[in-house]
Specification:
mainly alpha, globular, single chain
């Protein structure tokens, strides 16, 4: 049986994982109008501000310049290295079956 702290940690990881999925779904699921870039260019300051804000919301003790993608993946319960995630083609990541594939994806079991 899990103690209260373990239950809270598990709940926090579940929320963080859901948030990550929602962010990816929003970014990939809503196409931009023709001729418009899908992702607009921001600034380093804006990115750091977003990083700090979202880290607080997810209760992730993230520190700019220290916390890595590996740390975020571990926090959300995914046991894959960030380098593997970064190396995959977008077409693989946008297809759940291919993204979960052991041969050309992340080798993760589909959830839900």
């Amino acid at each position: 049986m899990l103690n209260r702290q373990q239950q809270n940690n598990l709940a926090n990881k579940a929320v963080a994982g859901c948030a990550l999925v929602i962010v990816v779904w929003v970014l990939l699921g809503h196409a931009s109008p023709a001729g418009e870039p899908a992702i607009t260019t921001g600034s380093a300051t804006g990115a750091r501000d977003y990083y700090v804000r979202i880290s607080k919301e997810l209760k992730l003790d993230a520190k700019p310049g220290i916390t890595t993608l590996d740390d975020l993946l571990d926090f959300t319960g995914y046991s894959i290295p960030g380098a593997k995630l970064e190396s995959l083609e977008p077409g693989i990541l946008m297809n759940p079956e291919r993204a979960s594939s052991a041969s050309d994806g992340l080798g993760l079991q589909l959830r839900g």
